[in-house]
Write a structure and sequence with these properties.
The protein is α/β, with parallel strands linked by helices and about 425 residues long. The protein is built from 13 helices and 18 strands. A 7-stranded mixed beta sheet has the order 9-8-10-11-12-17-18, with helices on both faces. Strands 4-1-5-6-7 form a 5-stranded parallel beta sheet, sandwiched between helices. A two-stranded antiparallel ribbon has the order 2-3. Strand 13 and strand 14 form a beta hairpin.
């Protein structure tokens, strides 16, 4: 899901450094660290979303801590942990540097790579620093929190990999109910997260009456998917499920459209997430169905707070959110921390952690609350849980089609494909 630009990282840091001055007054600021891969789309936009939340809270006087109000201040650091060849050890040095040098009271967004998040949990325990992560998606994070109380300082506000499988499989079950489709062809990037997602979906198909008629893996950087699309056509696939995060994967959808393959394209392709994709891919992504990992990164009429956030972000930064993962939970993380600190009446990390565990907020992703594993609970109804959204590109618009509680329209089938029942 990343797009790298070290220049962008430097510009973001420069802009944000002067963007959010502390309100007037002598109160000492509450310092929030934002160590992540700032040169990647999700990291840079998550920092902007967190900054927006800080500015909003400071404009209202700051955070109530006991008998005083204190402003929030962000200290950002480019961990570079999503960049190829950067070892986890370098990311850990960056995390510890921002904890010690900037004396942060908490961390939001956090590591990009799951390996860095898991290794960094020991630093959080060592320095007693709460973290509300919003990018790394490993389910192993939850297991560590549940098995050892020393890892209680870690929380995750974003979707994780297990929930992604639930949304993809839920979409396939919905497609089966609507159209009777039972033949799937999987196309995925040859990297660990995509391999694991495709394997899990292959298992789900097998257990739910579907036939997997083919599986094709592509190395990062591949730019021609026509052979796989021909195989899907020849095998009679009714659904093509893609799992990709590389920029070139948008070409897959362009080729699917150009070749007029009579199969529904429905899965996850990172570069199709934002509103700019229609122009980037010259409108040749019409009909593709894609996932947004957290509502708020895309507004939903059923979650009014998501639209308010989305519009405020666009007004503040002069551009709509393009990433489907990260910004909305980064924004929520700041508000969750502010609420926990106020309820605790102190910045003591253990008291803040105890209040974070009790969080229950109507936010930009829906209802935001943590499970015992410190993972925000995701579901299909924004009144009950945080939500992701699955949408279809329809004539230049992103129309939410799943879950049903958020749906704004119906799925349109590509030319040549008819319902099986």
């Amino acid at each position: 899901m990343p797009r790298r630009s070290s220049l962008v990282a430097l510009l973001v840091l420069a802009a944000l450094g002067a963007a959010a001055p502390d309100p007037a007054g002598a109160a000492e600021p509450i310092v929030l660290g934002v160590p992540t891969s700032l040169g990647f789309l999700e990291g840079g936009e998550s920092l902007k979303a967190a900054t927006l939340a800080v500015e909003e809270i400071n404009a209202r006087g700051g955070v109530v801590v006991g008998a005083e109000k204190r402003p929030l201040r962000i200290e950002a650091l480019d961990l570079r942990d999503a960049a190829p060849g950067v070892p986890v050890s370098e990311a850990l040095l960056g995390m510890e540097k921002i904890i010690l040098d900037k004396k942060v009271h908490a961390i939001v967004v956090g590591p990009f790579r799951s390996e860095a998040l898991l290794a960094g949990m020991d630093l959080l325990a060592k320095h007693r620093v709460p973290l509300l992560g919003s990018i790394a998606m490993t389910p192993a994070f939850k297991k560590k929190v549940e098995e050892d109380p020393k890892y209680r300082y870690g929380f995750r506000v974003s979707l994780d990999a297990a929930y992604l499988i639930q949304y993809l499989s839920g979409t396939m079950a919905f497609v089966n109910k609507e159209f009777g489709f039972t033949k799937a062809f999987l196309m995925h990037q040859d990297v660990l997260w995509a391999q694991a997602t495709a394997k899990a979906m292959e298992g789900w198909f097998g257990k739910n009456g579907w036939q997997v008629v083919g599986v094709e893996a592509y190395p990062t950087g591949a730019a021609d998917f026509s052979a796989g699309l021909l195989k899907a056509r020849q095998a009679g696939a009714q659904v093509i499920l893609p799992v990709f995060d590389m920029p070139q994967s948008g070409i897959l959808v362009k080729q699917w459209n150009s070749m007029r393959v009579p199969a529904l394209m429905a899965g996850f392709i990172s570069p199709l997430a934002g509103p700019g994709a229609w122009k980037t891919f010259e409108g040749r992504i019409n009909g593709a169905i894609n996932a947004i990992f957290e509502v708020g990164n895309m507004p939903s009429a059923r979650v009014p707070a998501s639209r308010a956030f989305y519009e405020a972000y666009a007004k503040r930064w002069g551009k709509e959110i393009e990433s489907g993962h990260g910004p909305a939970p980064a924004y929520e993380a700041v508000y969750l921390l502010a609420g926990a600190i106020t309820r605790a009446g102190t910045l003591d990390p253990d008291a803040v952690v105890a209040e974070l565990e009790k969080s229950d907020r109507e936010g930009v992703m829906g209802r935001v609350k943590f499970g015992r594993d410190h993972q925000v609970v995701f579901g299909l109804d924004p009144r009950q849980a945080a939500t992701a959204a699955v949408y279809q590109w329809q004539d230049g618009r992103r129309v939410i089609v799943y879950p049903e509680a958020l749906a704004e329209g119906r799925i349109q089938l590509p030319p040549g494909l008819r319902p099986a029942r």
